[in-house]
Every structure is written in C-alpha cells, then in structure tokens.
C-alpha cells in the first residue's frame, strides 16, 4: 500500500516537473518563439532564419505597437512605430560578438539614423560581460550574463549606461539594471514568460 502511494507521488512530481519544463522556453524551443510580459507591455520574440537577428513585437497598454530588431537579441538594430523610427549603421564588424562569454569585451562604432535629423553623429558602444547570474520569470529560471553597455559620443562623452541581464539560451534581455552600484540602482525587467504557441 505504502509503495503504491510513493509511486503515485513520484509520478505526480515527474509530471509536474515535465509540465513546468514545457512552460519554460529554452535553447531547444526558443526558435519557435516566446512571449515576455510585464505590467503594461507584452513582447513577442521571433528568431530570424539566420539565427542572429531577433524580431520583437511590442504591445503596450498605452501607446501604439512597436517592432524592433536586435542582433543576437542584445544590440538594437532597428525600431519602428507610428511615433517614429530608429536604425544604426555599424562601422564595426559585428559578426564575431556572439556567442558571448564571461569576460568578453567589445567596442562597436556606428551612427544612429533618425528621420528628420540633419546629421548622424558617430557613436561608440562599449560592451563588457561582467558576470553570471540567475533570473526568474515566474516558475522559470534562467542563467543570464550581466552585460555592461556604455554608449558614448566619439569624443568620449557618455550618453547612456546600463547593465543588460541577457539570457543566451533565449537570445533576449530579460531585465536592465540602471545606476548600478549606487543608492539609485534599479532593475526593470519582465515578470513572466511563455511559449508563443500558448
């Protein structure tokens, strides 16, 4: 009798684990697409045929929808919506950036192309993988790389800085950390993930 009860409990645990695994997109299923959500935004991720460019379709509770394209799911290449467009023209060879590894450092030179702007000023993006962390989205947990990104003008003036918590298995940034190491440090990230098929 006891053995039957234990067998039933073990079977239930195995089925629960399998169900949770199927609910959590990973390296094996990311190409099928997945959805990241947080209050106010729903983002649908789809990989391109070349496996390097990720298309993200954002829906907002307030505001028009937006489409973005990211190299490796990390570096924004193009953005478009009813409110405007944005693109970058790289001067650097970007093919060797991925896969990212701990300690990796890169410096990328490009110009930002904005409709209506008379000139496109050169910009430098400094990228450094500073560590590894775990990041949870509901019942799903992911290994992420902490990637420090600093955007500067060509003369060295800093324009922006943040740390991306990047999941290589998904090719997606799950959260961004601002003012890292200060009293104002904040992390803005997604709260849930599910397969696109759901």
How are the SSEs ordered, and which strands pair?
Elements: H1 2-23, E1 34-38, E2 41-47, E3 53-60, E4 66-71, E5 75-81, E6 84-90, E7 105-113, E8 122-137, E9 140-153, E10 158-167, E11 172-178, E12 186-189, E13 192-195
Antiparallel strand pairs: 1-2, 1-13, 2-3, 3-4, 4-5, 5-6, 6-7, 7-8, 8-9, 9-10, 10-11, 11-12
Note down, in words, how this protein is organized.
- This protein is mainly beta and 198 residues long.
- The protein has one domain (2-195): YmcC-like fold.
- It is 11% helix and 53% strand.
- It contains one helix and 13 strands; from the N terminus they run αβββββββββββββ.
- It has one helix spanning 2-23; strands spanning 34-38, 41-47, 53-60, 66-71, 75-81, 84-90, 105-113, 122-137, 140-153, 158-167, 172-178, 186-189, 192-195.
- A 13-stranded antiparallel β-sheet has the order 12-11-10-9-8-7-6-5-4-3-2-1-13, with helices on one face.
- It is globular.
- The two termini are 39 Å apart.
| Helix/strand class | mainly beta
Distance between the termini: 39 Å
Mean pLDDT comes to 88
Number of domains: 1
Individual helix count? 1
Q: What are the segments in which pLDDT stays under 50 over at least 5 consecutive residues? A: 5-21
Q: According to CATH, what is the class?
A: Mainly Beta
What oligomeric state is this?
single chain
Q: What does the radius of gyration come to?
A: 20 Å
Helix content: 10-25%
Biggest sheet overview: 13 strands, antiparallel
Keywords: Signal
Signal peptide: 1-21
Outline of the structure:
The chain is mainly beta and 198 residues long.
């Amino acid at each position: 009798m006891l053995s039957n009860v234990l067998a039933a409990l073990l079977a239930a645990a195995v089925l629960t684990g399998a169900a949770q695994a199927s609910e959590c997109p990973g390296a094996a299923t990311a190409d099928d697409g997945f959805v990241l959500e947080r209050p106010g935004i729903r983002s649908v991720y789809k990989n391109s045929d070349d496996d390097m460019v990720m298309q993200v379709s954002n829906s907002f509770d307030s505001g028009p929808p937006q489409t973005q394209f990211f190299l490796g799911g990390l570096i924004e290449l193009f953005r478009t919506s009813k409110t405007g467009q944005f693109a970058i023209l790289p001067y650097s060879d970007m093919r060797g950036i991925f896969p990212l590894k701990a300690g990796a450092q890169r410096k990328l030179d490009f110009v930002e192309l904005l409709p209506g702007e008379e000139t496109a000023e050169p910009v430098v993006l400094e990228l450094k993988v500073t560590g590894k962390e775990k990041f949870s989205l509901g019942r799903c947990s992911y290994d992420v790389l902490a990637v420090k990104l600093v955007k500067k003008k060509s003369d060295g003036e800093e324009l922006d800085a943040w740390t991306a918590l990047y999941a290589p298995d998904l090719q997606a940034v799950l959260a961004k950390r601002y003012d890292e190491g200060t009293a104002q440090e904040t992390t803005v990230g997604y709260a849930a993930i599910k397969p696109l098929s759901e």
